[in-house]
Amino acid sequence: MIVIVDERELVTEGYCSMFDREGVATTGFKSNEFGEWVSSAPDEDLSSVRAFLIGDCSGEAVSPRTIRDRTKAPVIALSEHTTLENTLRLFESGVDDVIKKPVHIREILARIAAIQRRGAEQKPVAAGRLHVFMDGRDPEVDGQPLPLPRRERRILEFLASNSGRRVTKTQVFNAIYGLFDEEVEENVVESHISKLRKKLRERLGFDPIDSKRFLGYQLVV
């Protein structure tokens, strides 16, 4: 899930719509709402955030360093002002990247992936013969790609990014569909994971996803 912060509701709705067409879940906030949320949100909600996009915000309501105190997700500024002084100011505030608008959604996703690749936690995760990447590529089994639908691939990436930890169905849902999507039932996660496990069993000969009722899912690495 990607969180977008901007004072203009039309802007957040526009970005959410464009990301949705790319199969990426989003949530939009105004700056005052975001400040309250990021300081009080449960860790399991923040763990589902792939990146924060900060647009036109009032005052000091949105602090990249405050965000980083709660999560390691990339913080990217969307800037309408192309001056060097403004770009330097944004970097000094603690953002990981500055993107000048207008910009295509796919470029934003590519920049997020590039930032994540630079982090140690974004190295490919190996589960035996299965290798899971964090940059949008399909996973590989024995060096050969295993094509997956976007949501199944994102679920596998989320499980891999939390290797060694068990994640709940709610956490998986939040990562794939967003925190406030009321149009989709949370139980859809079970259907996606069932299809994913079947494909993994067919290629690997075993199921690398361990599930326990009421406790959630874990990728066995």
Automatic annotation (TrEMBL):
Keywords: DNA-binding, Transcription, Transcription regulation. GO terms for molecular function: phosphorelay response regulator activity; transcription cis-regulatory region binding. Residues 1-116 form the Response regulatory domain. Residues 121-221 bind DNA. The keyword DNA-binding applies. GO terms for cellular component: cytosol; protein-DNA complex. It holds the Pfam family Trans_reg_C. SMART domains: Trans_reg_C. Residues 121-221 form the OmpR/PhoB-type domain. GO terms for biological process: regulation of DNA-templated transcription. PANTHER family: REGULATOR OF RPOS (PTHR48111), TRANSCRIPTIONAL REGULATORY PROTEIN TCTD (PTHR48111:SF67). This is Response regulator transcription factor. It comes from Pseudaminobacter soli. The lineage of its organism: Bacteria, Pseudomonadati, Pseudomonadota, Alphaproteobacteria, Hyphomicrobiales.
